[in-house]
Each structure stands twice: as C-alpha cells, then as structure tokens.
Design brief:
It is a single chain. By secondary structure, this protein is α+β, with helices and mostly antiparallel strands. Among the domains are: 2-65 and 252-365, Efflux pump adaptor protein, beta barrel domain (Elongation Factor Tu (Ef-tu), domain 3), CATH 2.40.30; 67-93 and 219-244. 48% of the residues lie in helices and 24% in strands. The protein has 7 helices and 12 strands. The strands form 2 sheets. A 6-stranded antiparallel barrel has the order 1-8-11-10-9-12. It has a 4-stranded antiparallel β-sheet with strand order 5-4-2-7, with no helix packed on it. α2 runs antiparallel to α7 (219-244) and α3 runs antiparallel to α6. It is rod-shaped. The two termini are 38 Å apart.
Length: 368
C-alpha cells in the first residue's frame, strides 16, 4: 500500500514537473525491505536489536530457545560417530585374533569327528570290562553277607537292622554292576552313525565360519556402511542448519525498521520477526513524462535532492528506466492525453547516507 501511494503521488507530481524550469522529475526515496525470520521458530529468549538502529551483516537480531534443536544435533552427531566406526570396522576386515579363534574351532571340530569315527579304544573297553568284573564280585560278596546275616536273624544273634543294611549294600552294588555292564555294551557297540553325522555337520559349519572370517565383510556390506555414514552426515547437516535457525541474523548492513516479537513470545516457523531496510540499497524513484524522456538514459549522470535538504543536489546516476509507461488513473481517449504518460526512473544517489525511505525527492539530468 505504501509503494502504491508513493507511486500515485509521484505520478501526480510528474504532471506538473513539465512546467518547472529546472527539468527535475519528482518522486520518493525507496529502500529494499527485508523481512527476516526463522524456518524453525520457537520460544524467543532474547531480542538484541532495537528499532531504528543500524546493524552489521551477520548481527544477531533475535535468539530462540536452542535446547531442543541442540539435543537433536548432538544425537545426529552421535549417530554419525557410530556409523563411521562401523564403516571403519568393516573396511579393516576381521582381526587376526578372530581368524585364529575361528580356525581353532574348526580344528577342534575335526578332532572330535575323527575321534567319533575311530570309536572307543581297546584299552577303554578292557578297562570297562575289568571294572565290570570288580563290581560284579563286590555285588556277589554283598549278597553272600546278606544271606549269612539273614540266617542268623532267626536265632536272634543279629539285629534286624544289620540285615537291612546288608540288603542295601547288595542293591547298591548290583546297581553299579548294571551301570558298568551297560557302559561296556556301548563301548563294544562303537560310535553311532547319527553322532558321526552330527559331528561332520559341526565340522563343516566351523570350516565355513573360519572361511568367512578370513574373507572379511562383503563389498555390499562395506558400501551399505558407507551409505549410512553419508546419511548420518546429512542428518547432522540438517540438524545443524535447524540449530543455526535458533538465531535470526541480519543478511546485510541494515537499519532495523521494526521488531515483531519480544522475549517469551512463541513464534511459528517461517514467521517474520523483524523488518530491515538495506543501507546500501536506497534509491530515488521519479516519474518522467514521456515528452521529457529523451534526455534520460541508463548510466547518465544525474543530480538528486530531497525535501529535507532542498537546494542541496547530490551526485547520482540513472540506474534503470521502466520498459513500460504508466498513465494517470483514467483511460486515454485523445492524442493530447498522451502527455500524461510517465515512465518510472530509478536514480541511484552516490552518497545515500542522508536518505530515508518515504522522503519526497527530485532528480534531474546533470547539465554538461
């Protein structure tokens, strides 16, 4: 609305400019406005800029609470460290100790298979048979003792408890005898085919595990780990960018026109929190009637003055001439109405330090 109102004033002023002897066109001072904000928003904890002050490029204007964003950034950094460690582990391959352990497990499985295929040794069988004869003799001896005590029980020479103890010793000896007898039968029968097959499968599995350990990780696994590292880096960059959005900074040397927030405000993402005017992007826009446009060209030396300092002409240069003219706010019906056709001309003042947006201003081509 401000720009439209200024343009209307300039058009009206330009119509009277033809009657002035100095050949000046009239308009207003304009400046490039920048609305700055945060893509993440948040709780405002500090406002460092003051309205009307001049801030340098990169100056912090508004600061948001960064705790949540900083935590997300720290988590992303930890995930990157984990992904890089995993990728390094895969690139280095299996450690020597891991290879030796896998090979030792394969050798142990091979020894066990060989032992099962050979079956029990003859010495083991002989030993088991000798043990069987010993426990059978013990069982027979305990039975003889029990019978002797049982015969004396009727005459009252021995108590009943003695007979019961003898019976228990006999039963225990007979149980040991039966256990040893069973072991002898197993040794004499040799290793079962199922045990041999199971041992062979364990050996094959151990050998494959050792081969995989020696070969190390596959190229696909290494590539996958590298991709996870890149993903973690992207996450870290994203969270870092979000963390930087906790501070709203000036993109250039600007004058603070307005601040829209105060500490404690909760600003949504993308909302403008300050309006800035670029100090080195200030110019005068005047409107030149069509009959006088021939004296104006881009790059021509010009002069400009403002209502704040009338009569003080500042060096300037014509920077832009509109490609299309504008009419007063009514339809053109006759040839004489073409005098109301004006062209917007942008004039850059070489020293714009005294110019303020909205000032009434005039410009003219510098006389040679």
């Amino acid at each position: 609305m401000r720009a439209q109102a200024a343009a209307m004033i300039c058009v009206l002023a330009a119509c009277g400019a033809r009657e002035e002897s100095d050949g000046a066109a009239h308009g207003v001072v304009e400046a490039r406005r920048i609305d700055v904000g945060s893509k993440t928003g948040g709780r405002v904890i500090e406002v460092l800029a003051r309205e009307g002050s001049v801030v340098e490029a990169g100056a912090v204007l508004v600061r948001f609470d960064p705790d949540e964003l900083r935590a997300a950034n720290d988590a992303a950094r930890a995930r990157l460290a984990e992904a890089e460690a995993r990728a390094l582990q895969l690139r280095r391959g299996s450690r020597r100790e891991e290879i030796e352990q896998a090979e030792a497990a394969a050798r142990q499985a091979a020894v066990q298979l060989a032992a099962l295929r050979s079956g029990p040794r003859s010495q083991e069988i002989d030993q088991a048979r000798a043990e069987l004869r010993a426990v059978e003799a013990e069982a027979a001896n305990t039975e003889t003792s029990r019978k002797r005590l049982a015969a004396l029980l009727g005459s009252g020479d021995v108590p009943r408890q003695a007979v019961d103890d003898a019976t228990a010793r006999r039963d225990a000896a007979q149980a040991r005898s039966e256990a040893v007898r069973e072991r002898v039968r197993l040794l004499e029968a040799g290793t079962r085919a199922e045990d041999v097959r199971a041992a062979g499968e364990r050996l094959a599995q151990a050998e494959k595990a050792a081969a995989l350990t020696r070969a190390g990780p596959r190229a696909e696994e290494i590539a996958q780990a590298a991709a996870r590292v890149e993903q973690a880096k992207a996450d870290l960059a994203r969270t870092g960018a979000q963390l930087r959005e906790a501070e709203v900074r000036s993109p250039a040397r600007c004058r603070v026109e307005s601040i829209a927030v105060r500490p404690g405000d909760l600003a949504p993402p993308g909302r403008a929190v300050a309006a800035l005017l670029e100090e080195d992007q200030t110019w005068i826009r005047v409107y030149v009637p069509e009959p006088e446009l021939g004296a104006w060209r881009v790059g021509a030396e010009a002069e400009a003055t403002t209502s704040a300092r009338p009569g003080q002409w500042l060096p300037a240069v014509v920077e832009q001439i509109a490609a299309q003219g504008e009419f007063l706010p009514r339809n053109v019906q006759t040839a004489s109405d073409r005098a109301h056709l004006v062209f917007a001309v942008k004039v850059r003042v070489r020293d714009a330090g005294t110019l303020r947006p909205g000032m009434a201003a005039s410009a003219r081509i510098k006389a040679k």
